[in-house]
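Take one record.
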Amino acid sequence: MIAKHIVQKIRDVVGTDNALDSELDLFGYSYDSSFVPLVPLNKPDLVVRPFTTQEVSRVMAIAFENDIPVTPRGAASGRTGGSVPLKGGISLSLDRMTKLVELDEPNMMATAEAGMRTVDLYNACAAKGLFYPPDPASWKFSTIGGNVAENSGGMRAVKYGVTKNYVMGLEVVLADGAVMQTGGKMIKNVTGYDLTSLFVGSEGTLGVITRALMRLIAMPKMRNSLQVMFPGLDEGCRMIHDMLQAGIVPAASEILDKTCLTVATEKRKMKIPPGAAAAVIIEIDGDDEAALESQSNRIKAVAASCGAILFRAASSRQEADELWAIRRGISSAIATLAPDHFSEDISVPRDQFPEVVKLIQKIGEKYGLLITVYGHAGDGNLHPSILCDMSLPGEKEKVHQAIEDIFAASLSVGGTLSGEHGIGITKRPYFAHAVGDVAVRTMKAVKAALDPKGLLNPGKIW
C-alpha cells in the first residue's frame, strides 16, 4: 500500500480524478493483452494518469523518494505481460498524453506524445503527403510510446523496417524524475553514446518515454494488394524467398497456413479455391500504375513457378482493404477455435523461415496440439499460435513444453525469442539462453546505472 499522504502528494500533481485507487480501477490496470493469468497480487496500488511530461517527472520523483515501483503503460496491447504491475506500486498510464506536438514538413519529421495512437500519427502525416510506415496489427489502438518501448514491427517491415528505423530522438523521464532529451533532427549524430537506441525496445525498464521524434518519408503515390494461394506452406515460403532473391521487395508480405486461411475467410464470408492450404498476401507500392503492373506481373510469374493455384490483384481500394482485414483479424479469428490459445512471436533469418515452419509442425505433432502459423514471412517474423484447452489433464504441461520447443527451434536456426512483442514476463525463463550470460550481465549493469533502486517495471525481461 502507498501511504495516504504520498497518494495526496501525487493527486496534488495530476488531480484527484487522475490518481485512482478504487478496486475496480486497480483491477482494470492489472492485466494487458498477453496470456498472463490474472493474479490479485498483480494489481497496482494506485493508477496515475499524467497529462504532461512535467507531471510524469514529479510523479517519478515522488516514487523514487519513497521507493514505489512504477509500471509504465500505454494501451496495454502488449502480448508478453510488459505492462502488468508485478510489484504493485503505481501503474503509470500515459493514455492522456495524445498530442501531435509538431509535424515538421520541411525536415519530414513528427514529434508525438507517448499516448498518441499509431493510426492517428499515420493519418496526420498522410494528410500532408508524408508516410510513417510502421504498422503493427494493433495500430488502431497501440500507442507510439508503447511502439518505441517494444520496438514494434508490423507488416511493412520487409521493405520499410521497424519502429527503431524511424526514431530520431526521445524525451525520457528517468527513475528519479530527471527529464532527458536524446537525439534530434540531425541526420548524422555521433555525439556520445546512442542513448536514443538504448531506450528503443527497453520495455519501460530504463525510463518513461514521454515524447518521440519520428522520421517520415514521402507517401507512395500508389499501392495495391495481391493474394496468392498455394497447396501448402512450403510453396508459399518458397515463393517469398524467390521473390526477394529476384530483387522484388514488396511493402508487405504475409503468410497464412490453412487453419488461419479457413477461419479468417469464413468470418468474412469469402470463398477459397479447392486445394488451397496456404495464402500469401502482398502489398506493392510505387509511383504510377506502370510500376505497380510491372511488380504485379513479376510476382505473378514467381508465384506460378512455385505452384500457385490462385493469383488475384485487388481491383479497388475496398477489395484491397478486405484482403488486409483478413490478415489483421487472424488473431481474434483463430481464438474462436479453442477455449485457449497462446500466440507466440519468434524471428529467424529469412532463409530459415521454411525450416522453422517445418520444425513447428513437428512440435505440434509431437504433443498432439494444433499449432497454426502466420506472420511476416518477408522479414522472417512469424507467430505460431497454440490452440488448446487448458482445463484438460496434462494440457498445461504440454503447452508449456511446446512453447519451450518453439523457442529452441528458433534459436537452432539462428533466430531469437521475439521479433516485435518483447520479453516482458512470458519469455523471461528463456532470455539468458537466447542472449548469453555476458549480455545479461551487461544489460543488468545498464539497468542498475539508470534505475539504481530497481523501481522501473520490476520483474520484466529477467
